[in-house]
Structures are given as structure tokens and as C-alpha cells.
Automatic annotation (TrEMBL):
The lineage of its organism: Bacteria, Pseudomonadati, Pseudomonadota, Betaproteobacteria, Burkholderiales. This is Helix-turn-helix domain-containing protein. It comes from the Bacteria. Keywords: DNA-binding, Transcription, Transcription regulation. It comes from Duganella guangzhouensis. PROSITE patterns: HTH_ARAC_FAMILY_1, HTH_ARAC_FAMILY_2. SUPFAM superfamilies: Homeodomain-like, PYP-like sensor domain (PAS domain).
Amino acid sequence: MMGDEICIMVQNGAMQTESLTPDAARAALGAAIADPFFSEGLFDALPDVVFFVKDVAGRYMVVNQTLVQRCGQRHKSALIGRTPAEVFSHPFGQTYQAQDMAVLAGDADIEDQLELHLYPNRDPGWCLTRKHALRAADGSIIGLTGISRDLAMADKKNPAYRKVAAAVNVIHEQYGQPLQLPELARIANMSVAQIERYFLRIFHLTPRQMIIQTRVDAASRLLNGDASVAEIAQACGYGDHSAFTRQFKATTGLTPSQYRQVAAGRKSEA
């Protein structure tokens, strides 16, 4: 048998094709799988990962148990057949649904978008979200699938952690100031390419994503007070009020004013 070939033998006559190339074997295996959603059970075992599949109307068709729990539900049936706008409170659901519609329209897939998620009965948590369009054989979009991963703890055992931590301290202490990647690299005694690589390995974030995370965290705290949105934008390193609002909404799904209203509502309920 040639090195680029593979032999598949399945008992009971299900598949007995021999000498398939890897691509052909992949196609044959995919066609033979009885349940295309076999991965649902695997994702049920991951408490730090939300998983879902939606149809072309943006309705949940497959969800894992983590998503069910974070929506404040007990059973998957509470989500199946419903859209985010029907599952999440306003305006979160509308924001998630608009994001889905953009993917379903073929605008672009979403790759590791940093998001601050606010689930019912759960403290805010940072996630990295991916959403990919699902396509039929003719290339038409028939749905989407996605995951949202909780940001993992830093890998403090990495040999480069001490160097990178020096740059992280600057981000946390000076987030209100302009922060340039070359300067952060100099502080860590690394090249720009090195610091980007080690940030991803240690924190699962790029330096830019960590800057955004730190600034939005600070803004979220300040929005619980009396400072104006313009003052908060300035304090968090945004000289342009509109740029702050765009970034905050892209990350949380809410404008700063909407977030302030939601936070005030949570306070009154507590």
C-alpha cells in the first residue's frame, strides 16, 4: 500500500473500501456516520466551553449542557428551536442574534472574538467566541456552529512567564495611557513576535486583547459610579468617546449607557 493511502475495514459490511487516500477516507467516514451531531455528548463534558449549532433562521438545534446551565435552565429542550432573542434578556439576546445573522448572511466567520458574557444568575466572565457558517454541498449557508471558551488561567509554569508578567503589570497599571506593542516588548525584553507568541501561550490572549480586557473591566467598574461616559472613556485610555462606545459594545454587546442600566438593575435585585 502506498504511503498516502489508508485502509478502512468496518465489520458487518458497513464499509469495506480499501486503499483510499486520506481525503477519500475522510469523505467516506463522514458519509457513514449515522449522527452528524455526535460531538454534542463530547461538549457536554466540557464545563468551560459553550457549544451550539443553529439553523439558517438562527434557532438553536444542538446545545451542550454548559450553555443550558448558563442560561439558567435545566433541560436542553428549553433552548431547542428558540433564537438567542427568545432565550436571553434584552438587549443581550438581540445583540447575539444580530451577530448570528451576520454570519448566516455570509459576511464573515467570527474567530476568537473577546467577549464579556453576562449570563443569568452568573457573574460576568470573559470568553473567546468562534462562530462558523455551515454550508451544504453546493456551498449555500444552511446554519452555523460555534463555541465560546472561558479564558483559562495563566500558565505560570511557562519559563517566559516572569518576563511577560512585567508587561502585564504595565497594562494593568497604565491602561489609561497609550500602550504600544513595541514598548511592551521592550519591557519584557522580547521582540514583538516573541511577546505576541508568549502572550497567546500563557494567557490565551494577544497583548491587544489583554489591553481591551483590562480597559473594559475598568470601565465596567466605573459605570457603577456617577462618572459620565465621556469621563470614563478618558480614564480608560480612549480619547475618542465614540471609539470607546464602539469597543465597549463590541466586547459586551451593550453600549456603556445600556451596561450602566443593567448594572443598576442587578443592584436593585440584590
